[in-house]
From TrEMBL:
InterPro entries: HTH_LacI, Lambda_DNA-bd_dom_sf, Peripla_BP/Lac1_sug-bd_dom, Peripla_BP_I. SMART domains: HTH_LACI. SUPFAM superfamilies: lambda repressor-like DNA-binding domains, Periplasmic binding protein-like I. Keywords: DNA-binding, Transcription, Transcription regulation. GO terms for molecular function: DNA-binding transcription factor activity; transcription cis-regulatory region binding. Residues 4-58 form the HTH lacI-type domain. The lineage of its organism: Bacteria, Bacillati, Bacillota, Bacilli, Bacillales. This is LacI family transcriptional regulator.
């Protein structure tokens, strides 16, 4: 079926194309009766105004760009759903871009979105130099999620250091004496903060920190833990920097015949839905992904819809420990 054009609408309503354009863009005077005729012709023909074309006139597209680091990670899917639900509720659409944890691709997308017709941008889990974010934000309203920087004020995040401390203190409470941290990649600000939280809690307990760097994906958790035990290292607690790596770690332990939680207690981070369904179910640190996404759009919307800058420029969420069988001794 062919899409109706603005000409088709004008013909059906018996008015000029310029009149239809004025109705779509809500610009200039159009009498009440004419407006009704145009709107009903649009409905009858299921006419979808081209947002780019509208943007040329109004300089607004009611579209935002959302850039996430890993489309395959359920934490980011849930967060994206929050952004999208909030956007739709306000009459906006969302263009989704995925950087695959690649800073060059992230920079490419941020600049691309800035040059296109989006009204605002939400960047999640950014690793780019903060100056790139600042530069783009000077031209297009931008909100960062899952990253906090004293050099950029519009942000939604959880306290990663606090979350890591909760995880390590819990492992200590259940009797762990040698706790390794399988961290996320060290160019990720949230991974750096979690590592700091781990170190603080381990040092408080008078223990030596032990750290391995993964990449926030299943395979790195699996491979690092496999290699750790193959080397004969003695470890009775794992704090993984996210759930995907923790699930990889659980699988490596199962293959090696290590009993979780009796001989090895494991804590993840994020509280993605599959943590309920792995064996044993995974204790983790909850981050409210959906709410973070929803709030990020609301923060952006506040900036898009008001002339004066918003007072509420930052939103911090608290991480929570969620207890399950992987640490229940
Ligand atoms: O699972 C991906 C992790 O990377 C999340 O914990 C999120 O906070 C991000 O930085």
């Amino acid at each position: 079926m062919e899409l109706a054009t603005i000409r088709d609408v004008a013909k059906r309503a018996g008015v000029a194309v310029s009149t239809v354009s004025r109705v779509i863009n809500q610009s200039g005077y159009v009498g009440g009766e004419t407006q009704r005729k145009v709107l009903s012709a649009m409905r009858e023909l299921n006419f979808q105004p081209n947002r780019i074309a509208r943007g040329l006139v109004s300089r607004q597209t009611s579209t935002i760009g959302l850039l996430i680091p890993d489309v395959a990670n359920p934490f980011f899917s849930e967060l994206s759903r929050g952004v999208e639900d909030a956007a739709i509720a306000r009459g906006y659409s969302v263009l989704l871009c995925n950087s695959d944890w690649n800073p060059n691709r992230e920079n490419m997308y941020i600049n691309l979105l800035n040059g296109r017709w989006v009204d605002g941008i939400i960047v999640v889990g950014s690793r780019s130099d903060i100056s790139v974010v600042q530069q783009v934000a000077a031209e297009t309203p931008l909100v960062m999620v899952d990253r906090r920087s004293s050099d950029f004020e519009f942000a939604v995040w959880t306290d990663n250091r606090q979350g890591a401390m909760l995880a390590v203190r819990h492992l200590l409470e259940v009797g762990c004496e040698r706790i390794v941290h399988i961290a996320g990649p060290m160019d990720s600000p949230s991974a750096q903060e979690r590592r700091r939280g781990y170190e603080v809690a381990i040092q408080e307990a008078g223990m030596e920190p032990m750290f391995l760097e993964g990449d926030f994906r299943y395979a790195s958790g699996f491979e690092l833990v496999n290699a750790l035990f193959q080397r004969g290292d003695v470890v009775d607690g794992i704090f993984a920097g996210n759930d995907l790596m923790a699930i990889g770690a659980l699988q490596a332990a199962a293959n090696l015949g290590i009993r979780v939680p009796d001989n090895l207690a494991v804590v993840g981070y994020d509280n993605i839905p599959s943590t309920h369904y792995v064996s044993p179910p995974l204790t983790t640190i909850d981050q409210p992904a959906y709410d973070m996404g929803y709030s990020a759009f609301e923060l952006l919307y506040d900036r898009l819809s008001k002339d004066s800058p918003t007072e509420n420029q930052q939103m911090k969420f608290e991480p929570k420990l969620v207890l399950r069988e992987s640490t229940r001794r």
